[in-house]
What we know:
- The protein is α/β, with parallel strands linked by helices.
- It has two domains: 2-40 and 155-346, no CATH class; 44-149, Rossmann fold (3-Layer(aba) Sandwich), CATH 3.40.50.
- Helix content is 61%, strand content 9%.
- The chain has 14 helices and five strands.
- It has helices spanning 2-17, 19-37, 44-47, 60-69, 88-91, 122-133, 156-186, 189-195, 200-228, 238-262, 266-283, 297-301, 304-317, 325-346; strands spanning 49-54, 76-79, 97-101, 107-114, 142-149.
- The two termini are 33 Å apart.
Amino acid sequence: MQVFYIFFKKSLMLHRRSFFAAMMSFGFPLVFFFLFALSPNGEKEILARIAIVDQSNGSPEYERFVDAVKYFQGVKVSNLKDFDDAKISRNLDEYSYVVVFNEGEDVAVDVYTHKDKYKSTKLVSNAIEQSFNSMQGLQSKLSVNYNTVESKKISQKEFALVGVLALALLQLAMYSTAMPLLQERGEGVMRVFKLLPISPLTMFLGDVSAKIVIGFVQVIVLLFLMVYIADISLPGSIAGLILAIFSSTLVMISIGYAIGGVLPNHHIGTHVITFTNLYMLFMGEIFTTVSNIEVLRPFVMINPVAYVSNLLRVVMYSSEGFLSVPGLLVGMLTFVLVSIMLVVCFFKYDTNNR
């Protein structure tokens, strides 16, 4: 236990003393965080859009509502022809409200809106309510049903800020795990540890545990900033979020150990780590979705950061990832097992005999 604590403390001290590692693993993601957190959401036009579906064959109620709602400045009205219940959530990603006039002698109107995303759109809700109030003089009976729908699409700002969490873990793997390990091997530090009467497993567990703590601290700080600076809400299941953070951190650290343990020397390793970091950054769906592009999808499927970023978004916002949650977890477990296999089979304590 004492050996475990010594290596745990050693890893924390090295991270604190390494300005480059601290800047790359936390300072670099922090720059992107403030870049996206302080940027406008870009959804004001969507918030003021109403889609109207006429299934009442041009009833007087429909005509009266269309005429009434058009008087409100800032509200954009569109007629939606291709409509069914299965597309409600998708339509609400483009419109703040969908108003459906159903067929029948007594007109029934269904009003749909997202449960959380458009609570503050008073301009649109007031326009709808006042338009219905102006129709009270019509002879036919009018019933209005308000329905809320769960959103499966997150805003651009939410997408990017969750991506910053994955970016922080990527930088932790590359510049706080792989690079320091490669340097210690080149300087002969790992060979000295090998000569000591200690268990290699205990040594690595102490180091890995410290990296997991560092990863958790980074993500928790970023989550705190998301809530109190970017005004982003956290999911209801905090336990699910903690498990997602732990599994994501474990995946990235294991990959960092595999890269830092098998590269032949520091010169080659620096280039490989830089290239790998760029590949995982651009193909990891950190700031934009690329898995829907057929030619790029294979590169996304073999990128561990893509699994991490998608899992975090699914857990935090119930968004649709390029795989289901079990598929994402199986993929992440595969990366961990392959990394462990590489470390067990090919890890060397120095770079001299490569």
